[in-house]
Amino acid sequence: MATVLVLGATSDMGIAIAKKFAENKYNIQLAARNPDQLKPAQSDIAIRYSVDCTLHAFDALNFSSHERFFNELVPKPDVTISVFGIMDDELTAFDDWNTTARMINTNFTGAVSILNIAAKYYMKEKKGTIVGISSVAGERGRESKLIYGSAKAAFSAYLAGLRNKLYKQNIHVVSVKPGFVYTRMTENLSLPKLLTAQPSEVADAVYNAVVKKKNIIYVKWFWRYIMLIIKNIPEFQFKKMNL
Amino acid sequence: MKKSIANWGNYPVVESDEQFFSFTDQLNQLVKNNDEFIARGNGRCYGDASLAKKTISTLKYDNILSFDIQKGIFECQSGLTLDKILEVIVPKGWFLPVTPGTKFITVGGAVASDVHGKNHHIDGSFSNNIVDMDIALSSGEIISCSPVHNIDLFEATCGGMGLSGIITRVKFRLKKIETSFIKQKQVKAENLEEIISLFEKYNHYTYSVAWIDCLKKGENFGRSILILGEHATIDDLNEKQKKEPLQLPKKKQITFPFNLPSWVLNAFTVKAFNFLYYGKNFKKEINNVVSYEPFFYPLDAILHWNRGYGKNGFVQYQFVLPLEAKQGLIEILQRISDKGLGSFLAVLKVFGKQESIISFPKEGYTLALDFPVRKGLLEFLDELDKVVLQYGGRIYMSKDARMKPEILEGGYPELDKFKEIIKKYNPDGKIHSIQSDRLFLTSN
User: Fold this and answer.
1) Closest partner CB to A41 (pick from B25, B63, B67)
2) Which of A74, B120, B318, B428 could form a disulfide with B368 if both were Cys (CB 3.0 to 4.6 A apart)?
3) Segments making up each domain of chain B, as ranges
4) Where along chain A do its domains lie?
């Protein structure tokens, strides 16, 4: 039976993805800063899907701990999925370097740190799958997502580069750009119903992308075209817009 | 975030700030940060019991915590819905000890309404099967209770409409089954006299319920179909069913796409529906083996069937009368028939004995009817309330959206004790709903 590692498993998307893979008979490794919070999810997955589910402490910001974290996983996961991320208030972040640094380090640096380690292991094994949950916010820099968007842009570029690097070694990399999703992160925003996905829809799309070896997925299909339009607005026009 | 919410009857509709939690520490924060709230599950109570300016939803708190397959003991967080539980327990040879007519309710809701099923006369209500449970009080503290521990809190929580706190965890006993099928018997009754004598004749059946056509007058007044059932054994199954005796029913669901205009439901269409429903049984008695799904949850197959009552919504009216008060049953059905206010469903069941302070069930006959909301309805129901009280009966709070406080008080002799307990555990009065304010259970 194959094993999947979910990094950032306390998030709504993380838990939905874990359950989707468990339903398809993968053993599950849930990793989060506070794994005790995940004990109920652990029993749920084990009972509901009759698979093994283990909990692991993982702190995205503690880069030097990542090597040891990955080494201690038994067995090593066949699929590594990076779901963690934070979205702080952009005005606060602009004023306060610590908030900016934390947003960059969680959404980009921390993800690169752990996925480099997973990639090196998969290169040795000559097989494996890596999934990164990035964001449509990384498609083009704009005021309302200044730091978050640029960190996600960097992460998207990293995933694309990694896919290119690992392709020859039979290792597949999936970039996920979910668009709006109903999660704790967006609980207080009023989102357009048609454009917003449930965490379970993201999970279905991720599972499907892993099985069918898709490269870049958007969950709700029209996001691909929305972003295509946004990316094609000339910069002299774009800079004047409130986005 | 503020939004318009309503429960299953689509009446009333209120503006509410609905908040969610996935972890216990988040719940603790929510309880502390809000100056008032009521817990809410899947919104399948009919009226305003789980409506308030601020609601705390349990729907994201839905993990299974343990399942003892040998002993049949199941433990979960309160936001888990019964349909998800069935998917896990049925293939292992277990069933819900008590289930209402929909599987789309949360376990927390099952306890807060202390739901009953077609087997109340044999197995009691949901709370009879609880081993223990946890309640988050308005202070943020979570404490456990059971029939032997913190008994007052336990008693005020079963059927207490969430007023004792937020139910967070429930451990309960399951019922052993050999197959997932039901051996069903349907018997036609020409009138009310006959259906009541049939209930008495078949009272040894685990499951029994009757559908009454309450618009019939004259000698067919109370025309009905009695539906009886037992969990089928392997020997009851045909060869095909025997191959997989504990199979889950196949998912066949359709969605009611929009609200029907309210004029669609009138005396004529309801009569036609009832005629067809009654007429589909040609024989006096039908015996067959069916999946548990159509037997327990016939309406779950049509998602959003409540839209059939139009955007004004409907009120479900459910009361219980003592066994000896058959005359009251006749009087109420007579008034409904005279008024022609229309009811898709008129469901009659028998309750066995039950000791409780705020739970609805008590020994007698219980009747549930749907009424689309229209002019004159509320006044009419007020009249029915008086008849119910006069015959020593009471009204089910889980269905209620309009009862007056004196009617509740008249029906529940231990009401003062209930109020004292909820005050003891929540002295700050933070927990209240539109219903509890209306019924003077809490002060606004």
Assistant:
1) B63
2) B318
3) 64-177, 181-408
4) 3-238
